[in-house]
Amino acid sequence: MGVKLLLDKANVPGIRTYEVYRREGGYRSVEKALKEMTTDAIVEEVKKSGLRGRGGAGFPTGMKWSFIAKPEGVPRHLVCNADESEPGTFKDRYLMEFLPHLLIEGLIVSSFALGSNDTYIYIRGEYAWITDILEQAIDEAKANGWLGKNILGTGFDCNIHVQRGAGAYICGEETALIESLEGNRGNPRIKPPFPAIQGVWMRPTVVNNVETLAAVVPIINMGGEEYAKIGVGKSTGTKLISACGNINKPGVYEIDMTITVEEFIYSDEYCGGIKDGKKLKACIPGGSSVPILPANLLLTTAKGEPRYMNYESLSDGGFATGSMLGSGGFIVLDEDQCIVKNTYTLARFYRHESCGQCSPCREGTGWMEKILQKIETGKGEMSDIDLLWDIQRKIEGNTICPLGDAAAWPVAAAIRHFRDEFEWHVNNPELSQTSNFGLQHYADPIHVPA
Amino acid sequence: MATTFNDIQMTEFKRLVARYPEGKQKSALLPALHLAQDSFGGWLSTETMDYIASLLTIEPIEVYEVATFYSMYNLKPVGKFVFEVCQTGPCMVSGSDNIIDYIKKTLDIKPGETTKDGMFTLKLVECLGACGYAPMMQVGKIYKEHLTKEKVDGIIAEYKAQAANN
Ligand SMILES: Cc1cc2nc3c(=O)[nH]c(=O)nc-3n(C[C@H](O)[C@H](O)[C@H](O)COP(=O)(O)O)c2cc1C
Ligand code: SF4
Ligand code: FES
After folding, report:
1. Are A69 and A114 found together in one domain?
2. In a 3-state reduction of DSSP, which class is residue A58?
């Protein structure tokens, strides 16, 4: 069993309520931070912990906090990003649903460190029942003196508000989220100015992911240095992974980032192996935006070394032979899955979610979807594959926000590693409607997982 | 259908607006539209949107442009119960196609349509953050997960009974 810092109490009966959460040691970090630490010391502790943003980009949290502008007389805001809409990702939901007070606790400490008196949780609109759970937790925290005016007699005031989105993946992008919080369409802003200077209502703003802000609790409790000892290299602490697809035990797992991908997939402690005794074909290890890898490159790097579940190892080899840890949305595909069809559904997703501001993204996502549908339904031509490659290449890096890249990468990786499956669809239009390209050479036939 | 909030709804509306700084009441637009949709028959008519605009003292166009951007707002009437079935990659590899086909056949409607009795609408949606519990669909505030054909039958029966009791 690896170390657990976030979900260790998830199975305690009644942990969702304030009484049980407090009895189990909850809100200690608020006492410590507000009474014993300066705001600078908290930021310093988070820097020392090596915590990297858990929303997908992995940006160092302490550094991000130190960028926040502090102009005289202008309020600052912390915004918690609970938009969680990247396909394959459902970890924040789990944390908020079962441990709402852990998030509230992290938010209070973080709000104090950043000087935010009004903190907002922006939650995806579909998580309506979780909104109720969070509002109840906030009410309980307030009734017990952890929120509101003059918290613990320190003179610090803080309120937390929950705002529901209304169905738009793009609102997970931090500047689109800010627009949405202001009551606008979720069109990402051009940066600079960065939110740390001009964010919500043109005030300095920090946007962090749910899991990032929850991780502040163990960091304050144990100290940044101790936290940094867990994990390896620049992958410190623990990470929540939401595992789904063709595995025996889909769900949310907290891992310490020293385990191998193979252990994560095949061990009974985690995914429990591939469903129905089938073989592993491919995996998207960090949410739908990151490159898909065939089994052989997933379990070992191009150099033949075992691959680990952490930031560095998953990206070993760059996009040529590696992928990314991303949001921790771990999507497993078995031998019966069709890569073309899977890529088509993702392309459709990105077309649906493009905000339409930049032409490469708006036009390119729709174009890629159409071509993929054509190939998938047996109407594709060989030149379509090259055309797809060309379109994705022209989207990448040419857009206002990273959704363009996020739409391009899955298509690029699918063609890069599974080109023969695309070609097979083109060459066997009838066969491709009734049967499957199968495993071919993607999984190492000799390798037998322990 | 009334297009003004009753007292309870108005109290909730005021609570929503109070969360934002003075003069930034437009920020309450998304939550206000949710409230309006829930209060006025599950969709947003032009009348409803104009009403929200007047409450927030913003231009009607500011409401329209937001209502048309976000997928959760219904701009035309929908059935009493809306089945929003996820069709994105992780659900697809877990068999959502079969569930969608089964619902289409059972309710005899295509995606985007409502049954003749006005009871059910079928909508195909993109990832709802329940990929590990696939296949799944959302009905109102509730997620129905690990769907099978039998489960779908049960859900349809459940809502029919609920409608009959009301
Ligand atoms: C299209 C798009 C969608 C995103 N969706 C989310 C999301 O749902 N949740 C999230 O925390 N971050 C999301 N992000 C990343 C945010 O922009 C931002 O980097 C993050 O909230 C920062 O928090 P962190 O540093 O704690 O990870 C998304 C980014 C893009 C480009
Ligand atoms: S890249 Fe796409 S989603 Fe992002 S701003 Fe441009 S059009 Fe909008
Ligand atoms: S893909 Fe269906 S809930 Fe995520």
Report:
1. yes
2. coil
Burial letters for A147-168: b for 16+ Cβ neighbours within 10 Å, e otherwise? beeebeeeebebbbbbbbbbbb
Render each residue's pLDDT in chain A as its tens digit; 450 residues.
689 999 999 999 999 999 999 999 999 999 999 999 999 999 999 999 999 999 999 999 999 999 999 999 999 999 999 999 999 999 999 999 999 999 999 999 999 999 999 999 999 999 999 999 999 999 999 999 999 999 999 999 999 999 999 999 999 999 999 999 999 999 999 999 999 999 999 999 999 999 999 999 999 999 999 999 999 999 999 999 999 999 999 999 999 999 999 999 999 999 999 999 999 999 999 999 999 999 999 999 999 999 999 999 999 999 999 999 999 999 999 999 999 999 999 999 999 999 999 999 999 999 999 999 999 999 999 999 999 999 999 999 999 999 999 999 999 999 999 999 999 999 999 999 898 898 877 765 444 444
Chain mean position to CA B85: 12
Nearest to A337 among B33, B62, B93 (CB): B93
Instruction: Please tell me whether residue A153 adopts helix, strand or coil conformation.
Output: coil
- For A10, A91, A300, B15, B99, the CA distances from A248, given in Å and listed in that order, are 21, 18, 22, 45, 20
Q: Which residues of chain B neighbour A246 with C-beta distances below 8 Å?
A: 93-94
Q: Which of residues 422-441 of A touch B (CB under 8 A)?
A: none
Same domain flag for A87 and A146? yes
Nearest to B129 among A127, A129, A346 (CB): A127
A166/B73 CB distance under 8 A: yes
- Segment A142-148 long-range contacts (CB within 8 Å, at least 24 positions apart): A143/A18, A144/A18, A144/A22, A146/A27, A146/A30, A146/A104, A146/A105, A146/A108, A147/A104, A147/A108
Q: Which two tokens stand for residue A73?
A: 């007389």
Tell me if the bond preceding B135 is cis, omega within 30° of 0.
yes
End-to-end CA distance of chain B: give it in Å, rounded.
Answer: 17
Domain final residue pick, A315, A334, A353 = A334
Instruction: Identify whether the C-beta of residue A301 lies closer than 8 Å to the C-beta of residue A289.
Output: no
By CB atoms closer than 10 A (0-12, 13-18, 19+), residue A448 is exposed
**Domain presence at residue A319:** yes
Q: Is residue A313 part of a domain?
A: yes
> Would you tell me the crossing angle of helices A91-98 and A100-114 to the nearest 10 degrees?
100
Question: In angstroms, what is the span from residue A78 Cα to ligand 1's centroid?
Answer: 14
* Domains present along chain B, CATH in parentheses: 7-69 (1.10.10), 81-165 (3.40.30.10)
**Pair of tokens at residue A238:** 């623990």
**CB contact at 8 A, B100 and B124:** yes
What is the Cα–Cα distance from B31 to B70, expressed in whole angstroms?
12
